[in-house]
Design goal:
E_motif, Serine Threonine Protein Phosphatase 5, Tetratricopeptide repeat, mainly alpha, 2 domains, two-stranded antiparallel sheet, extended, 5 helices, TPR-like_helical_dom_sf
Amino acid sequence: MPMEPDVFVWGALLGGCQTHRNVQLGERVAQHLINLEPLNHAFYMNLCDIYAKAGRYNDMRRIRASMKEQRIKKEVPGCSMIEVNGIVHEFSTIGSPDVVMDELVFVLTTLSNEMKILQVTLWREIRKNLIEIKEDQ
């Protein structure tokens, strides 16, 4: 790299560690980021997520306890977006309009029911194919 990596490059690397569940590298990268910006909650939370995905819940609790002890907390509310019929709906931890939430619950319930029906159909098809394979042998 022609220049020294900044906090954004290191943060991207930490995100990659989280995605690929690389705990060892994630720990080193998170520690480097925490040394650069000790009050940035995002680095602690990413490390917690890495630990959680690896089943290392004691380490996750240790990081959260450290955050609490240092009075580091997430200042910005979490936010998610979903596109339905070309319209982007935004949801945050501070709440969303009830009408939008009602629509979302309806859509998710409908999708869930359709997936259950497809699952039953898929299993029937798999059983049928397995029986045919067994009969051919």
